Amino acid sequence: METTAAFRGLTCTACGAETDSTADRCPDCGGVLVGDYDVPELTPAALPDTTGPGRYEPLRPFPHDATVTLGEGATPLVPVPDLAEELGVDAVYVKDEGRNPTASLGDRKLSLSVTAATQRGTERVVTPSTGNGAQASAAYAARAGVESKGFVPSRCPFLNKAMVNVHGGDMRVVEGRYDDAVAAFDEELAEAADGWVPVAPGHPFRIEGAKSVAFETADDLDWAVPDAVVHPTGHGETVVGLERGFQTAADSGLTESVPRIYAAQPDSAAAIADAAREGDDEPATVEHPDTIVGPLEVPDPAAGTAALDSLERSGGGGVAVPDKDILAGAVDGCEMGPETGATGGTAIAGARALADDGAFDGDDVVVLVNPVAGSKEADLLRSHLMSQGI
Ligand SMILES: [Zn+2]
Question: Do 208 and 237 form a contact (C-beta atoms < 8 A)?
Answer without folding.
Answer: no
